[in-house]
Amino acid sequence: MEENSNLTAERSLEIITEQIAQSRKNVSKSVGQSLYIAGICMMGTCIAIALVNYIFQTPMGHLLWFALPIFIWIASHKRKDEQAHAPATIVGTMVAKTWSTFCIFVLGFFFIALIWGFFASRLYSPSEYIYMEIKVTPVIVLLMGMAVTITGHILRQRWLVIFGIIAGLGCFMWEHLGIGKQLLIVLSGLSPDNLAISFTTLPCLTFVIFAFIGLTLPGLMLKRQK
User: Fold this and answer.
1) pLDDT of residue 29
2) C-alpha–C-alpha distance, residues 116 and 63, integer Å
3) Which of 5, 51, 105, 195 has its CA 20 to 30 A from that of 66?
4) Measured on CA atoms in the order 179, 181, 182, 184, is the torsion positive or negative?
C-alpha cells in the first residue's frame, strides 16, 4: 500500500513537471510572437520618425512614439484572433506581469522627463540645460533589456537572457556616451550646430538596433522552436 502511494506521488510529480514544461513551451511561442510583432512595429515607427524629422526638418516626428503602443496592440490582437485562445498559466502570467511592470516604469519615467524638460528648458540657459537634461533613450533601452532578460529567465531560455543583456547594455552605452553623435560629426565633417536635426534621428537608430537584437530576432527564434 505504501509503495503504491509512493508511486502515485512520484507519477503526480512527473505529470506536474511535464505540464509546467509544456506550458513553458507554449508560452515561449506566444512570447516569441509578441516580441516579433513589437520589434517590427518599433522598427517601422523609427523609420517613420526619422523620415518626418528629415523631410520637415523638425523633431516633432517623435510624437509618433505615442502611436507605437496602438500599432503593437492592433497587430497583436489581430494575430491572437487568428489563433486558438490558450488558457492562462503561471508562466504566462509572470511574463505578462514583467512587461506590464516595464510599461508602467517607462511611461512614468517618460512623463517625468517630459515635464522636467519643459520646465528646465525655461529655467536654465542652453549651455546649462545640456547638463540638466534627462536622457530618455538610454534608460528606456536599459529597462527594455532588463525585461527581455527576465523573460528569458522565466522561460529558461539562456540565449534570450544573453540577447537581453547584450541589447540592453550595448544600446545603453551607445546612446549614453553619444557614440552615434561622435561618429556622425567625424563622418560628415560638419559642426554639431549643422547636425541638430540629424541628432534628433539618432535615438531612432538606437531603437532599431535594439528592436532587431532584443525583440525581432529573439521573437523569430522563439516562434520557430520545436
Assistant:
1) 81
2) 17
3) 195
4) positive
Helices 158-176 and 136-155: crossing angle in degrees, nearest 10, is 170
Q: Is the pLDDT of residue 128 over 60?
A: yes
Q: Which residue has the cell 512614468?
A: 108
Q: Is a pLDDT exceeding 80 seen at residue 155?
A: yes
- Residue 84 is given by DSSP the state P
Give the mean model confidence (pLDDT) for residues 130-140.
Answer: 88
- Mean pLDDT rounded to a whole number for the chain: 84
Residue pair 135/203 in contact by the 8 Å Cβ criterion: no
Rounded distance, CA 48 to CA 144, Å? 21
Confidence at residue 126, expressed as pLDDT on a 0 to 100 scale = 80
